[in-house]
C-alpha cells in the first residue's frame, strides 16, 4: 500500500451490484486506496433517510486478497457512510464519492436523491464529498464515456480542496465523450415534479396507487444545472446542508410573533 | 362549511395515531377546514424519502359525519403530501402543517426529519408550510402547553403570507407555557451526530448493529435555534429547498475544470 495515496470511500443508492458504482470503483482505484460500503439493495428516492428503528447488517463482499475492500449494508446510503466511517475504515477518508447514479439528480431531484444523501452525510461528518449521476436510467447505461471527467473532477477536488460544508452534485448528460462541451458550475434549477398517481385494484378489489410524475422546469436561467445539461455540459452544483433561508429572516422578524 | 375558512392539510411522521398530530388537528380545526393525510406507521428519520418502487395504500379513517377528513397512507410524509394534494383534496390547501413531532428537529436534524420533509414537500408544490416539533421524545409528551403558540404561529403565517419557497421549522422547548420566553427567528445551528454503533449478535451468531449517537453542537451563536431552545425560546428557522451554496460558486469557478 502506497502511503501517499489518498483514501476514498465509495457509496451509492442503486446498490452494491449496480454498474454505476463499478465505474466509480475502477476510476478511484487508479488514484486512491478505496473502500466501498454500499446498500445491499436499491435505495433510490430514499432522500436523507437513516435507520434507527431497525437493525443494520454489514457484509464483507470482497475476498481476502482483493485490491478493494467492499461491504454491503442493509441500510440507506446515509447509513452506509455512517457505518463505513465508524466501523469499517481505519481513518477518516480524504474524500467520499457517491454514485454513479443511474438517472438524474439535477434540480429539485437533489432533495429526493439517495446518491446525494450519501455525499451530504459525508459532508456533515466533515468529509469532502461528491455525488455523481448520469442522465440515463438504463441499468446498462454507458458509463465509459464519462470516466475521464469523473477522474478529472475527483483529482481537482482532491488537489484544490472543496469549500467547507459544501458537497458537489455532479450530473452528466447522456452524450458521447467528444460531444460533451465541458464542465459548468451551476445553481439548482427551480423545478418540481407534477405527480401522476396511477390508481389500480388488487385482485381482491382494494384500491392502490403507483406514484409517478412529469418533471416540470420553469426556470430557464442559463446558470442552472438544467440549462447546462440540456446544452451538452456537465453540471456541478455546490450543495450546502445549512438549509437556513437567510434572505427571509428580515421579513419574518417584522411579524408580530411576541404580542 | 364556512367558505371563508382557510383549508389546511395536516401530516406528520410519527403516524396518524400519534398524540402530536391530534394536537395539531385540535388547533387547526378551530381556525380552518382540515384534511389529514398521515403515515399509517411511524416514519421518523425518513428524510425526504418518496415511494416509487412500491404500491401506496390510502385508507379513510374518519367516519361519514366526522368534522375532519382523516386518511392514513402507507407511504412516507412526502408521499402523504403528494397523494393528499392529487387524490384527496378538492383544491390546493392554503397551508400545510406537519407534526407535532415527538422530538427535536432543530439544527442538522432538519435533514433527517420526516416531519420537515412533509412540510418541505408542500413547499416544493407551492403550498405555504410549517413543521412543528416538541423537544420531548415521550409518546405521552404534554402538547397542551404549546397549543397557544401553535395557534399564534399558524394565524400569523396565514395572515402575513410566508416568503416564497420558504418553509418554517418550528421547535418548542420542553417547558410550561408560562416558562416560555417567546419566539425567535433563528438560523440552523452547525451541529452533527457523533454516531455510536451498538454491535450485537443474533441468536444464530450473526453480527448486527443498532445506530445511535450523541448530538454535538459546536455552534454557540446566539442567533441559532439551539441557543434559543436552550434559553427558553421557541425557535423558528426559515428553511429553503434550493440547496445551492451560492457562496462557493466563485471559488469553484477558479478551478481548472476545462483544461
Task: Summarize the structure in short.
Chains A, B: Its EC number is 3.1.3.5. Chains A, B: Pfam families: SurE. 2 copies of one chain form a homodimer. Helices cover 24% and strands 29% of the residues of chain A.
Portion in helices of chain A: 10-25%
Given this structure, which CATH class of chain A is correct? Alpha Beta
Uncertain stretches of chain A = none
Strand order of the largest sheet of chain A: 3-4-2-1-5-6-7-11-8
- Percentage of residues in strands of chain A: 25-35%
Category from helices, strands and their pairing of chain A: alpha/beta
Mean pLDDT of chain A: 95
CATH superfamily of chain A: Survival protein SurE-like phosphatase/nucleotidase
The largest contact between protein chains, plus residue counts on each side, is:
A-B, 80 and 79 residues
Element-by-element helix/strand order of chain A: EHEEEHEHHEHEEEEHEH
| CA-atom Rg of chain A in angstroms | 19 Å
Topology of this structure?
Two copies of one chain form a homodimer.
Chain A: E1 7-11, H1 19-29, E2 33-39, E3 58-60, E4 69-73, H2 77-88, E5 95-102, H3 109-112, H4 114-124, E6 129-134, H5 147-160, E7 166-172, E8 182-185, E9 191-201, E10 207-217, H6 225-230, E11 233-240, H7 249-253
Parallel strand pairs in A: 1-2, 1-5, 2-4, 5-6, 6-7, 8-11
Antiparallel strand pairs in A: 3-4, 7-11, 9-10
